[in-house]
UniProtKB/TrEMBL annotation:
Superkingdom of the organism of origin: Eukaryota
Name by which UniProt lists this protein: Uncharacterized protein
Lineage: Eukaryota, Fungi, Dikarya, Basidiomycota, Agaricomycotina
Organism: Jaapia argillacea MUCL 33604
Amino acid sequence: MFNLPTGPKLNSSGGVEKDVVGEEKGCLAVVPVAEEGKTLGRLLDLIHPGQAATFDTLQSLRTTLQAANKYGMEGIVDGGEPLLLASLESDSVGVYAVACAFKFEKTTRLAAKLTLRQPMLFPFSKELECISGAALYRLLEYRQACGKQAIQAANTAWDHNLGAWCRRQSCERASQTLGMYTVTLWWWDYIHETHDRLKECPSSDAILDPALASPFIERAMKCEICQGTLPSGFGLFTSRYAKEADAAVSQVHLQVEF
Ligand SMILES: [Zn+2]
């Protein structure tokens, strides 16, 4: 913490000394601190009745909470967790890092789940510098496990819809079976493309991305059998696949250690 001067310093004629940096300024104590004025301003706004603190960036929120923590303002630190939610969509990785740093378990888990929408090498967040390598490793481990579970979900969703396409085998067939079934080549390629995408982004958003399915649908529509059954069957499959993937991912446990 810091020590406050005991009172204004008087000069030899009994007057108050002026502008003595680091000691007094007029009758006011000058206390050197490490934080920027903006940070302390936000901190004071948080404790000032009727004053709303504003945080333009996640970094500004983090530095303010760090200052609150430094000065033993535990109530302010605890009250900071809901403020992190505003940055979840724009910087989920950064929110994960800040939540870890301040031991906000609920937000740590929520942010980790939101990172699943990002590619495996997610966009860099400067907030990552405030967590340990172990905390980052646990996030990567979680994301990898989610990817595996989401891919597995394809098997559950797919069985329900098998046979919706090409019962008369007018499509080119894949040379390998998918499980115990022989499938069309376009379907085989589509499933493996979703697997690749889920390894990168373990989220149902990847499955529901129209751009992912588009080239495979084009191939399927060249078949006179598939073009009749595809529109309803494919949509049914993708929605079920997305649902199963989300359910599978929700079972993955993120290890959190503060
Ligand atoms: Zn076909």
